[in-house]
Write a structure and sequence with these properties.
heterodimer, A: alpha/beta, Rossmann fold, 10 strands, B: alpha/beta, 7-stranded mixed β-sheet, 21% strand
Chain lengths: 224, 222
């Protein structure tokens, strides 16, 4: 699997170009499944889910002109026969994983069986994660949750599909809490892996373990 | 709750007019929640089908009508969401748009989620179902429509109305859905049953049943 871990979706031309490069073909020839699950428990959840799926968010992942798009709702999968959903995941060129609560998303990634399936997917499959959707691909999100309710698990131990952590929305300007750099440094110091803090104009591409930062904004690496 | 039980969504102006009547205000001033869940339980369903339903690009018009606001209420997620929070979402909605797919899978999640218990208290809310989204409110769907098997077996659904529904009768793409097949299906059921085509809807207000149709339908009584 290849990864494009973003803070705020496909927010500029550089990140868009990186996505096309990872796909190895135009978006219009690529099929995608979108995963809205992370935002289900948030205030205004239904509206967030609709805007993500319909591609009407500010920096859409779904509204990019995919050849085909489907909804993979993780909370439904345990009650669906595996033969009805596993082939759809195996055939997809890209998985578009929306943010929300990383705790909730991570719990359902495991509970659904998708977490176990991901490592066996074709090496060409592109995992595109935004915010919480990027954080769950890391080994550890160090207690950063964006979530006041912690419904299922208090564990910030994530899937470890890549070997660094991500702190999204660096210097965010949308009114949500914007921790000072010193606080992010303390967060990074508490992790056992290197960490990137990235702003909404930045993404991290990973192919065969090689990490490349794609940015029209700001980012910072906290090495171990 | 006011019900508009369709075979294939808001297919014609008669059904659209009935919907606006039930809402008591224009669609552009009404807040809707769509429920895609039934699609996931059907072997004929697909992730793409759920996407088309939500984005209003299916052949069963519901989500694309121009609602003031639209949200996705995913029943399988509700047991892991704070109850007070999601009940608030449902109470604020003017209308629930319920996708087709597998009726018993939907019945299972209507109950598991707690939505089935909440529905009777929503007196002003309009429930619009199509296909399995309509059948789920009936007492029984009939053996012929059992696909996904509930843990307890059987063909019983929520029983919020006292008749059964055979949707898509005489549909050109479903050669087995003839009126004769519907008659055989109805003969196996203890209560009244309607066979309706895709141009027909059953409206229920305060227990009064009214057929809205630009196509054809038939009532079978035991």
């Amino acid at each position: 699997m290849k990864f494009l871990l973003t803070s705020s979706g496909i927010s500029n031309a550089s990140i868009h170009d990186a996505l096309v490069q990872l796909l190895g073909k135009p978006i219009a020839e690529s099929s995608a499944l979108c995963i809205p699950t992370g935002v289900q428990p948030f205030p205004g959840g239904p509206s967030h889910v609709y805007r993500f799926i319909s591609g009407s968010t500010q920096n859409p992942m779904c509204g990019l002109g995919w050849k085909s798009l489907g909804v993979l709702e993780l909370t439904a999968l345990p009650s669906v026969k595996r033969e009805h959903w596993v082939p759809a995941v195996e055939e997809a060129d890209a998985l578009l994983v929306w943010g929300g609560s990383p705790l909730y998303l991570c719990y359902w990634m495991r509970q659904s069986g998708l977490a176990d399936l991901l490592p066996s997917l074709r090496s060409e499959t592109v995992y595109v994660g935004t915010s919480g959707g990027a954080m769950v691909a890391t080994p550890d999100f160090g207690g950063t949750t964006y979530d006041d309710s912690e419904p299922l698990t208090a564990s910030d131990h994530a899937l470890g599909l890549v070997d660094f952590s991500v702190f999204p929305h660096l210097e965010r300007e949308d009114g949500l809490p914007n921790p000072p750099l010193a606080e992010i440094e303390r967060w990074a110091a508490g992790l056992s892996v290197p960490a990137y803090a990235i702003d909404d104009q930045t993404a991290i591409a990973v192919v065969d373990g090689d990490v490349e930062v794609v940015s029209e904004g700001k980012w910072k690496l906290f090495a171990r | 709750m006011k019900l508009l039980l369709t075979s294939a969504g808001i297919k014609n102006t008669s059904i659209l007019d009935a919907l606006v009547d039930l809402l008591g205000k224009p669609i552009a001033e009404s807040n809707a929640l769509c429920i895609p869940t039934a699609a996931y339980g059907s072997p004929y369903g697909s992730p793409q089908g759920a996407w088309r339903f939500i984005c209003g690009q299916s052949a069963q018009p519901m989500c694309e009508l121009g609602w003031s606001s639209l949200g996705v209420l995913e029943l399988t997620a509700l047991p892991s969401i704070d109850e007070e929070r999601w009940i608030g979402w449902v109470r604020e909605a003017d209308v629930l748009l319920v996708n087709g797919g597998d009726a018993l899978y939907l019945d299972h999640w209507m109950r598991q989620s707690g939505l089935a218990d909440l529905l009777p208290s929503l007196s002003e809310t309009v429930y619009v179902g199509f296909s399995a989204g309509s059948m789920v409110l009936t007492p029984r769907i009939g053996e012929e429509f059992v696909g996904w098997k509930p843990p307890g077996g059987g063909d019983t659904a929520l029983g919020m109305v006292d008749f059964s529904i055979f949707p898509h009768v005489d549909h050109p793409d479903l050669p087995e859905n003839t009126m004769a097949a519907a008659e055989r299906w109805a003969a196996g059921l203890p209560g009244p049953a309607y066979a309706i085509d895709d141009e027909t809807a059953i409206q229920v207000t305060d227990g009064v049943v009214e057929l809205v149709s630009e196509g054809h339908w038939k009532l079978f009584t035991p």
